[in-house]
Amino acid sequence: xxCLYGNGMKQEMPFRPSKYCRIKKxxxxxxxxxxxxxxxxxxxxxxxxxxxxxxxxxxxxxxHVLREYTDETSHNELPSPIVFEGYHAHLMFYTEILxxxxxxxxxxxxxxxxxxxxxxxxxxxxxxxxxxxxYVCEVLET
Length: 142
What we know:
Elements: E1 2-4, E2 10-12, H1 19-47, H2 54-70, E3 82-83, H3 89-102, E4 108-109, H4 125-134
Parallel strand pairs: 3-4
Antiparallel strand pairs: 1-2
Helix pairs in contact: 2-3
């Protein structure tokens, strides 16, 4: 398409896509965005949860107690050694915070190192059962 302007020079009009082409382009962009975002949204829904599963309560209950001490919401005395069998990175996080913030050094003990008269912090039920077989145990806080 040619246009004639006042100075007598001919210039071409820029190409204008039709309304159908623009709708097709926006639909393609939307479709591509949905395809690319769907896996991320699906993964986020699987990972995100607001409540604990019943099988996680035993593992993470000690870290909840330690978090209360770091947040200064608990005024009870914290038993020093923690008995936890397995990988305990979630506990080390809070023990390091307590050491930095409040200068409280919390150690970890093995099951075999627990002696009569020790006050320990534990959450694994089978460890408690083993301790009850060997010693007279008293649960101070649940």
